[in-house]
Amino acid sequence: MLFSAICREDSSVRWHAISCMGATVARLADEDMEEARIIMRRLLWSLNDESGGIGWGAPECLAEIMCGHAGLVKEYVHMLVSYLREDGEEICQDGNYIEHPLLQRGILWGIARLSRCNPELLLQKSVGPEILPYLAALDAETRGLAVLAAGALQLLDARSSLRKMITDCTPLTVYQEGVFLETTVGRLSQSALEAMNG
Q: How far apart are CA 172 and CA 143, in angstroms?
């Protein structure tokens, strides 16, 4: 049931299902880690071209689950990060870059979510450079989510872009900690800069 709910067009249903999926799978991992891994692999598979699906809600669920379970975040954080990275020529370069704009939003939301609950781990994975280009995205929600991640990770290289974005009055709604936040790209940028200077 949760798998169908995370794909719903109704934002309230979809986002609360994502939160519920996070709590449910994290609790399941405490009881049966292998069963939780099966769900994680199912979410990852849905983002694979060969799955025949789109993977709506999968990046957000992955992040929400990882925020709730220390073991799962250590095992799967590299996969979420890989969706921001191009595949390289070296064998250790395991990028799985996703081009679909709506899925990019989901990935950025996931990175922003993990940036708030486990910033050190993302910094160890050197996530910063992949976020910076999204600050110039045409889509306001994409820009806003990149701002959230940049602020939470204290990406000093983002400061000049954030200063320019303070006057960006484009409205957007961001789901955080079970609440829908009505804000603007500019307000998010101001908050990110204050967090870096604080």
A: 10
Among 58-72, 81-95, 183-197, the range scoring the smallest mean pLDDT is 81-95
Element (H, E) at 122: helix 119-124
Domain residues for the domain of 151 are 2-197
DSSP, residue by residue, 10-25: -HHHHHHHHHHHHHHH
Give how far the C-alpha of residue 79 lies from the chain's centroid of Cα atoms, to the nearest Å.
Answer: 11
DSSP state of 134: G
Distance (Å, whole) CA 143 – CA 79 = 22
Segment 170-196 shows an average pLDDT of 95
Q: What is the mean predicted confidence (pLDDT) over 122-149?
A: 95
Tally of domains within the chain: 1
Task: Look at the alpha carbons of 142, 84, 44, 21 in this order and tell me if their dihedral is positive or negative.
Answer: negative
- Backbone phi and psi for residue 84, each to the nearest 5 degrees, phi listed first: -95, -10
**What does the DSSP 8-state code read for residue 125?**
T
CATH number of the domain where residue 97 is located: 1.25.10.10
pTM for this entry = 0.93
Give 75's contacts (C-beta < 8 A, 6+ positions apart). 37, 40
Decide: 40 and 65 in contact? Cβ < 8 Å: yes
Q: Within 13 Å and on the Cβ side, how many CA atoms surround 186?
A: 7
Distance CA 132, CA 48 (A): 25
pLDDT for 52 equals 62
